[in-house]
Protein backbone atom coordinates (compact mmCIF):
# COMPACT_ATOMS: atom_id res chain seq x y z
CA UNK A 1 0.00 0.00 0.00
CA UNK A 2 1.37 3.38 -1.00
CA UNK A 3 1.46 6.19 1.63
CA UNK A 4 -0.78 9.22 1.06
CA UNK A 5 0.85 12.00 -1.04
CA UNK A 6 1.29 14.23 2.01
CA UNK A 7 2.81 11.57 4.31
CA UNK A 8 6.34 13.03 3.99
CA UNK A 9 5.28 16.52 5.12
CA UNK A 10 5.92 15.79 8.82
CA UNK A 11 9.49 17.08 8.72
CA UNK A 12 8.47 20.22 6.82
CA UNK A 13 5.48 20.99 9.06
CA UNK A 14 7.42 20.41 12.25
CA UNK A 15 8.82 23.90 11.64
CA UNK A 16 5.38 25.51 11.21
CA UNK A 17 4.62 27.66 14.27
CA UNK A 18 1.20 26.03 14.73
CA UNK A 19 2.84 22.60 15.07
CA UNK A 20 5.96 23.62 17.00
CA UNK A 21 6.69 21.12 19.76
CA UNK A 22 4.14 18.53 18.58
CA UNK A 23 5.47 14.97 18.82
CA UNK A 24 6.29 13.35 15.46
CA UNK A 25 3.64 10.63 15.76
CA UNK A 26 0.94 13.13 16.74
CA UNK A 27 1.96 15.37 13.83
CA UNK A 28 1.70 12.44 11.41
CA UNK A 29 -1.82 11.75 12.72
CA UNK A 30 -2.82 15.41 12.31
CA UNK A 31 -1.43 15.52 8.77
CA UNK A 32 -3.29 12.31 7.89
CA UNK A 33 -6.56 14.13 8.67
CA UNK A 34 -5.84 16.76 5.99
CA UNK A 35 -6.53 16.91 2.28
CA UNK A 36 -3.90 18.26 -0.11
CA UNK A 37 -5.22 21.21 -2.19
CA UNK A 38 -3.47 22.34 -5.37
CA UNK A 39 -4.49 25.79 -6.62
CA UNK A 40 -3.27 27.28 -9.90
CA UNK A 41 -1.84 30.79 -10.29
CA UNK A 42 -4.49 33.49 -9.94
CA UNK A 43 -7.08 31.14 -8.47
CA UNK A 44 -8.55 31.28 -4.96
CA UNK A 45 -8.45 28.96 -1.97
CA UNK A 46 -11.53 30.89 -0.84
CA UNK A 47 -13.24 34.24 -1.31
CA UNK A 48 -14.26 36.84 1.25
CA UNK A 49 -17.72 35.96 2.52
CA UNK A 50 -17.53 32.24 1.59
CA UNK A 51 -18.55 29.80 4.30
CA UNK A 52 -15.48 29.16 6.49
CA UNK A 53 -15.34 25.41 6.03
CA UNK A 54 -11.59 24.74 6.01
CA UNK A 55 -8.33 25.70 7.67
CA UNK A 56 -5.11 25.70 5.62
CA UNK A 57 -1.34 25.50 6.00
CA UNK A 58 0.52 26.49 2.84
CA UNK A 59 3.17 23.96 1.83
CA UNK A 60 4.33 25.48 -1.48
CA UNK A 61 3.74 28.74 -3.35
CA UNK A 62 2.56 32.19 -2.22
CA UNK A 63 -0.88 33.54 -1.40
CA UNK A 64 -2.20 37.10 -1.26
CA UNK A 65 -4.82 37.90 1.39
CA UNK A 66 -7.23 40.66 0.36
CA UNK A 67 -10.48 42.38 1.27
CA UNK A 68 -12.82 44.49 -0.82
CA UNK A 69 -13.89 47.94 0.32
CA UNK A 70 -17.58 48.90 0.03
CA UNK A 71 -16.57 50.79 -3.14
CA UNK A 72 -15.13 47.60 -4.66
CA UNK A 73 -11.42 48.42 -4.23
CA UNK A 74 -9.13 45.54 -3.34
CA UNK A 75 -7.01 46.03 -0.19
CA UNK A 76 -3.99 43.73 0.17
CA UNK A 77 -3.68 42.71 3.81
CA UNK A 78 -0.60 40.56 3.37
CA UNK A 79 1.24 37.82 1.56
CA UNK A 80 1.97 34.41 3.00
CA UNK A 81 4.41 31.68 2.10
CA UNK A 82 5.11 28.04 2.89
CA UNK A 83 4.49 27.17 6.52
CA UNK A 84 1.95 29.93 7.08
CA UNK A 85 -1.55 29.11 8.31
CA UNK A 86 -4.62 30.84 6.90
CA UNK A 87 -8.38 30.53 6.86
CA UNK A 88 -8.44 29.68 10.55
CA UNK A 89 -11.65 31.52 11.38
CA UNK A 90 -13.71 28.40 10.77
CA UNK A 91 -11.74 26.48 13.38
CA UNK A 92 -12.70 29.16 15.89
CA UNK A 93 -16.39 29.18 14.99
CA UNK A 94 -16.69 32.13 12.59
CA UNK A 95 -19.20 31.37 9.83
CA UNK A 96 -17.50 33.20 6.92
CA UNK A 97 -14.01 34.04 5.70
CA UNK A 98 -13.27 37.76 6.27
CA UNK A 99 -10.67 37.83 3.46
CA UNK A 100 -9.96 36.25 0.07
CA UNK A 101 -6.92 34.01 -0.42
CA UNK A 102 -5.61 34.29 -4.00
CA UNK A 103 -2.52 32.51 -5.27
CA UNK A 104 0.25 34.64 -6.75
CA UNK A 105 2.00 31.51 -7.98
CA UNK A 106 0.88 27.88 -8.18
CA UNK A 107 0.34 26.79 -4.58
CA UNK A 108 -0.35 23.73 -2.47
CA UNK A 109 -1.81 23.62 1.02
CA UNK A 110 -2.94 21.08 3.54
CA UNK A 111 -6.63 21.63 4.33
CA UNK A 112 -8.54 20.45 7.38
CA UNK A 113 -12.27 20.87 7.79
CA UNK A 114 -13.23 23.28 10.55
CA UNK A 115 -14.69 20.42 12.58
CA UNK A 116 -11.51 18.38 12.22
CA UNK A 117 -9.40 21.35 13.29
CA UNK A 118 -11.60 21.95 16.33
CA UNK A 119 -11.07 18.29 17.25
CA UNK A 120 -7.28 18.67 16.80
CA UNK A 121 -7.27 21.73 19.07
CA UNK A 122 -9.21 19.81 21.73
CA UNK A 123 -7.01 16.72 21.53
CA UNK A 124 -3.58 18.37 21.23
CA UNK A 125 -2.94 21.06 23.83
CA UNK A 126 0.36 22.04 22.18
CA UNK A 127 -1.45 22.92 18.95
CA UNK A 128 -4.10 24.85 20.91
CA UNK A 129 -1.45 26.84 22.80
CA UNK A 130 0.41 27.53 19.55
CA UNK A 131 -2.86 28.79 18.03
CA UNK A 132 -3.35 31.12 21.01
CA UNK A 133 0.19 32.47 20.55
CA UNK A 134 -0.51 32.99 16.84
CA UNK A 135 -3.71 34.94 17.56
CA UNK A 136 -1.97 36.97 20.28
CA UNK A 137 0.87 37.84 17.89
CA UNK A 138 -1.64 38.99 15.26
CA UNK A 139 -3.46 41.13 17.83
CA UNK A 140 -0.17 42.68 18.96
CA UNK A 141 0.72 43.43 15.33
CA UNK A 142 -2.68 45.07 14.73
CA UNK A 143 -2.29 47.19 17.86
CA UNK A 144 1.17 48.32 16.76
CA UNK A 145 -0.09 49.18 13.27
CA UNK A 146 -3.04 51.10 14.70
CA UNK A 147 -0.72 53.10 16.96
CA UNK A 148 1.52 53.88 13.98
CA UNK A 149 -1.49 54.93 11.92
CA UNK A 150 -2.61 57.32 14.64
CA UNK A 151 0.78 58.78 15.59
CA UNK A 152 3.23 58.62 12.67
CA UNK A 153 3.59 60.90 9.69
CA UNK A 154 2.43 59.59 6.31
CA UNK A 155 5.95 59.29 4.91
CA UNK A 156 7.06 57.03 7.74
CA UNK A 157 3.92 54.85 7.47
CA UNK A 158 4.45 54.44 3.72
CA UNK A 159 8.10 53.47 4.29
CA UNK A 160 7.05 50.89 6.91
CA UNK A 161 4.40 49.49 4.59
CA UNK A 162 6.92 49.12 1.75
CA UNK A 163 9.43 47.38 4.03
CA UNK A 164 6.71 45.02 5.31
CA UNK A 165 5.70 44.16 1.72
CA UNK A 166 9.30 43.45 0.77
CA UNK A 167 9.66 41.20 3.81
CA UNK A 168 6.40 39.36 3.10
CA UNK A 169 6.45 39.17 -0.68
CA UNK A 170 10.18 39.13 -1.33
Structure, described:
By secondary structure, the chain is of the alpha+beta class. Helix content is 39%, strand content 24%. It is built from five helices and eight strands. It has helices at residues 10-13, 24-32, 114-123, 125-151, 154-169; strands at residues 35-39, 44-46, 54-60, 63-68, 74-80, 85-86, 100-103, 107-113. The strands form two sheets. Strands 1-8-3-6 form a four-stranded antiparallel β-sheet. It has a four-stranded antiparallel β-sheet with strand order 2-7-4-5. Helix 3 crosses helix 4. The longest helix has 27 residues, at 125-151. 27% of the residues are buried. The model has no long low-confidence stretch (mean pLDDT 88).
Q: What global shape is seen? A: globular
Helix content: 25-40%
What is the H-and-E element order? HHEEEEEEEEHHH
Rg measurement, Å:
17 Å
Poorly predicted ranges (pLDDT <50, ≥5 residues)?
Answer: none
- Derived structural class: alpha+beta
- Overall mean pLDDT stands at 88
Features:
single chain, 170 residues, alpha+beta, 4-stranded antiparallel sheet, 8 strands, 39% helix
Secondary structure: elements and pairs:
Blueprint: H1 10-13, H2 24-32, E1 35-39, E2 44-46, E3 54-60, E4 63-68, E5 74-80, E6 85-86, E7 100-103, E8 107-113, H3 114-123, H4 125-151, H5 154-169
Helix pairs in contact: 3-4
Amino acid sequence: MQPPPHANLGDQLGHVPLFKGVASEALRQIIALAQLRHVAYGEFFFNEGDDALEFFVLTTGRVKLTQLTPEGHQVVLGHIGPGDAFGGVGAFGDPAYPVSAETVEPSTALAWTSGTMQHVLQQHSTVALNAIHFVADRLHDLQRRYRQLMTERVERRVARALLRLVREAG
